[in-house]
Amino acid sequence: MKKKILWPAAAALFLVLGIAAFCTKAFCESRSEGIESADITTGDMNQSLAYDRMRGVMYVGTHGGVLSAWQDDKELWKTKTEGAYRKLVLGAGGDRLYAANESNHVYVFRTSDGELLLDIDVQRKAVGVAVNADESKIAVITNTGSSKSNLMIFSADGTELANTPYTLSLRGAEYCEDGDTLMLANKRGDVEHVTESGEVLASYGANYEIIQMKACAGGYWAVAKDGSWFGLDENLECIRKGKIDNTVKAKISSIGVDTGGEYVAVGTEEGYLFVMDPGGRQIYMADMKMKITDSASDEGRIFLAGYGDAVFCTHAKNLQNIELYQKLDSILRTALRVIAAAFLICVIGSVPKLKAASLRLLKQMWKQRMAYVMLIPTFVLLYLFSYRGIFTALTRAFTDWSVKKGSVAEFNFIGLDNFRTMLTEGYFLIGLKNLLLLLAANIVKTLTVPMAIAWMLFNIAGARRKYVHRFLFVLPMVVPGVVTALVWQKIYDPSIGLLNQILGAVGLTSMQRVWLGDSSTAMGAVIFMGFPFVGAMALLVYYGGLLNIGNDVIESALIDGGTKWDIFWKVQLPMIRPQISIMMTLTVLGAMQEFNSIFILTSGGPGTATYVPALELYLNAAQYGRYGYASALGVVLLVFTMAVTLVSNKLTKERE
């Protein structure tokens, strides 16, 4: 009695442990993500940020000339101008926002409602702005080319006070505490303490081209082209410095620091973000899939903007323990697998019939243990390169997984929305219609020419001649399908293509077409590709089927007065039905999965004339970044593929 209770009790225990491990893993997973959305979406490519820590208001300038203010996820106000906002600076009083715009203007806005208070026409592309503590002076960096800059000083009412030209590009300007001198960073790799007239008081050499400099956390922080970063005080003494581990060789684009000056974030043009801890050790790296252009500081947070419509932030609280959470997440993932296996064993042990069946199976497997051991590498490779992708698609087809939501913690369960999108967007249905047309054409091509050639090869007298002809027909198999598609692309070329040249040579210029660019001929051109349709695979399958028919059957038919034509229709064709069934299955599966030739020839166009579901899947996964929707498309194609395979197998068994 005790033994009977032991198995269910153990199963219940492992179930509780599994639930606890799963919940703990979910917690660790959420804490191991160093970046999260700030719930700000502008609808444009973001360029610059400024943050009012007292009011909790974020100001976002975009590449398209939109400037907006946000509190949490609520937009307070928005204004539109021409040109990209390259730099935003919040005045010390918090009631004015200074914005450098590439349309040759520096704007001053009232932060409460976005009203324009001052418009300074600097007559050059404004790429940087700084304001002193009492907001009596405004410093502006302008560019007149790739290697020429000006430092311009204006009064609070927009009157020009100074204009100093530089023969090299300036990468940042910040007012010092005295309100009369500035820190300048340049392309040469120097951070200079200068007067408003450009006189150099002191200098710090970084040895590499400086990409960006900004004032935050009580210092002046800069990042160089080689990935080295440093913070300087008013006397140009180095507070901290370090260098990112740039193994991906990304191009540096920005730097950010939290208000405590503890965590440093370095952004790149390719979208990689590197975060360093207070000891200068790189603790985090992520791919944000967009160029990171600017940052804003907060207590324990660094806000990030780039060529995307969302603003993101890193949490120092998470970053402090991110390695610990990542290790715990990995340990718990392994523990969950062990607990799941133990739970399954206990459940089997609790049911006598299952226990007896499992023991019988284990005994049989033990007898054939060497065979199973030798199959393990194959199953491991199959899982890694085949089944793992299928399982991922099956689970994430019901989520909003995308290029902007790359981790499990970011994307959400959306039910059947992806499958509804297939029906509402229309592209899938259009592709399905084109697929049915291609499928019918491929079936006809598979059943006709290869079978006819196989029958003629079978009836050729002489083994040597059979071998030579068979070799010549099969030889094109060595040519990759991509090469074949490229050849036919040239054949269809409207200017130099073989098809139009032949039509012109025989006087049929009226029939010349832009074959792949005309919606009325594009699908026909795709179907006609590969003429005369001697599919080597189908040819060999049919030929092998004919060879398997015994000579005595053919001789008996000849004795009964049958002609070769009668023998083909009444004897050979019925006997190669298994081969025909195999080729039909392969043709259907190939048509459903094939998009390479269409992508090369037409890319699905013109319009949607040659669009197919497999191309829809590829474009959403590889170009649009809609991974969840692409997974849903893959699931639908998988269901169709399995249905065709099961029906084909059943029909084959019935015939046998």
Strand and helix layout:
Blueprint: H1 2-31, E1 35-41, E2 46-52, E3 57-62, E4 66-71, E5 74-80, E6 85-90, E7 96-101, E8 105-110, E9 116-121, E10 125-131, E11 137-143, E12 149-155, E13 160-166, E14 170-175, E15 181-186, E16 190-195, E17 200-205, E18 210-216, E19 219-224, E20 228-232, E21 238-243, E22 252-257, E23 264-268, E24 272-276, E25 282-287, E26 292-298, E27 301-306, E28 310-315, H2 316-320, H3 322-350, H4 352-367, H5 369-396, H6 417-425, H7 427-447, H8 449-459, H9 463-474, H10 481-491, H11 498-505, H12 522-528, H13 536-547, H14 551-559, H15 564-575, H16 577-593, H17 596-601, H18 613-622, H19 627-655
Antiparallel strand pairs: 1-28, 2-3, 3-4, 4-5, 6-7, 7-8, 8-9, 10-11, 11-12, 12-13, 14-15, 15-16, 16-17, 18-19, 19-20, 20-21, 22-23, 23-24, 24-25, 26-27, 27-28
Helix pairs in contact: 1-3, 5-19, 6-19, 7-16, 7-18, 8-13, 13-16, 16-19, 18-19
Q: How would you describe the overall organization of this protein?
A:
Strand 22 (252-257) and strand 23 form a beta hairpin. The chain has 19 helices and 28 strands. It starts with a helix and ends with a helix. A 4-stranded antiparallel sheet has the order 1-28-27-26. A 4-stranded antiparallel sheet has the order 2-3-4-5, with no helix packed on it. The longest helix has 30 residues, at 2-31. Helix 7 crosses helix 18 (613-622) and helix 8 crosses helix 13. The chain has 656 residues and is an alpha+beta fold. Among the domains are: 1-39 and 314-351; 213-308, Lipocalin, CATH 2.40.128; 417-655, MetI-like fold. It is extended.
